[in-house]
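Worked problem 6 (solution included).
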Amino acid sequence: MSQTSNYTIERNVRYDEFVEIDLSETVQDTLYNKGLQQLADQLEVEAKLLKEELKQEESTDEVIAWILNITDEVVSSIRDSDFFSSKELVADVYYTRPGPPIILIHGGALIGGDKSSFEPDARDLAEKGYVVFVINYRLAPVDSWPAMIEDCRLALSWVLNPAVVERYDLQIENGVAIGGHSAGGHLAGLLSTEVNEEVSRDQIACAVLLAAPTDMVSILNSPDQAGETTVLFERLVSLRSLLLQVMMAVISSQDSSLGLSLEELRLMSPLYHVMINQAGTEYPPILILQGELDQLVPPEQGNALDLALREVGAFSQLETVDSGHGLDLFFRQSSNQELWSAENWQIIVDFLDQFSPTDL
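Solution. The predicted structure is:
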């Protein structure tokens, strides 16, 4: 436990303390590993072709640079032996006083990332009166889908356990707010829209989906380009398509031929659950914050979920900002701090204040 003048942080608190889950390292199948390595080789080739084309340009577009960085991270992860080590089910807890709880779920395409990415935001929310739980969860390829969403359900039930409520003096009258970025936003969206016996509507106060995939079927399709396409755009589309295929292959089980079935992709999609749920199904208020310049998770993903929620009478707040996939929210403690968007962050704070208010 560490304490500053304003807040306390408890690191690596186990949220599986009331259940037994086997997190022993999985021995990976040789053919499965070989398949992943071949996909990484293909990614490297596509990235090299795109970089060659970029040499003809005067400057590199921010969105293209972002996708290239993600590609490099995915390739490096697959090459890294630690890629085949399971994540522990732990949370960092930030608080200053008794308050409403919020769970934050990091991004990373379900194969990478860490709870530390939300630390500046968690500190800010704690100072605003929230008790913030930033979780790690199991990742592919050691653990395949649906381990990731199962861990999120477990984290929610842990926060609501009477022993945890008493330990942190949580105010749970409205339930637990949940939020996440990218893959974390996808998990938060699924937790908010699926009908599951482990999660009830009154447990979730509201949900914040940041640059979140909502339809895992359509996101694998190539984006449209109005007018004549350029070689650069074609290279970008090719890399993006392969990158998404690699992500889907990595999170699938080893016996699924390096891919997920159409039905599995649908069941991973918050949009699909809203479309198939029975009439009268209730949903928590949902904020969808997306970047107009996001070419990894196009704005159409958020638009579709917003429309579906509104059609069934649910509260959905759609905000499209002039940003890329990171929504200019992850520069707060970087050398490019001036790029951090206080305006985008305020959208989130205002939404939480409306549906999960603190006593400050």
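Discussion: The longest strand covers residues 8-14.
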